[in-house]
Amino acid sequence: MSKSKFVIDKLAKLFEQGLVSYKDLSNEILNILRSKRDEIIFRMQLTSKEETDILNKRIEILEKKIDKLEKKNNLKKSKRVKKS
Q1: What pTM was computed for the model?
Q2: Strands (E) located in the chain
Q3: How far apart are CA 26 and CA 19, in angstroms?
Q4: Residue 8: alpha-carbon gap to chain centroid
């Protein structure tokens, strides 16, 4: 309810200011929606594409290290033979 009230208040302000042409009105509505989108993104604290790429590379490196350690561990286990 508060979100719709926010949009209605913004539209009322536009009419008060005398923005009657369709183009001006559509531009103002788009600006309002963009600002709301930016606020939401800021609140969510999303990472940029560069940061995401860096994190993906770090994950790949860590996965390779884990695979190497698992292979080493498997080799050590397979060398043990029971003596009878």
Answers
A1: 0.39
A2: none
A3: 10
A4: 29
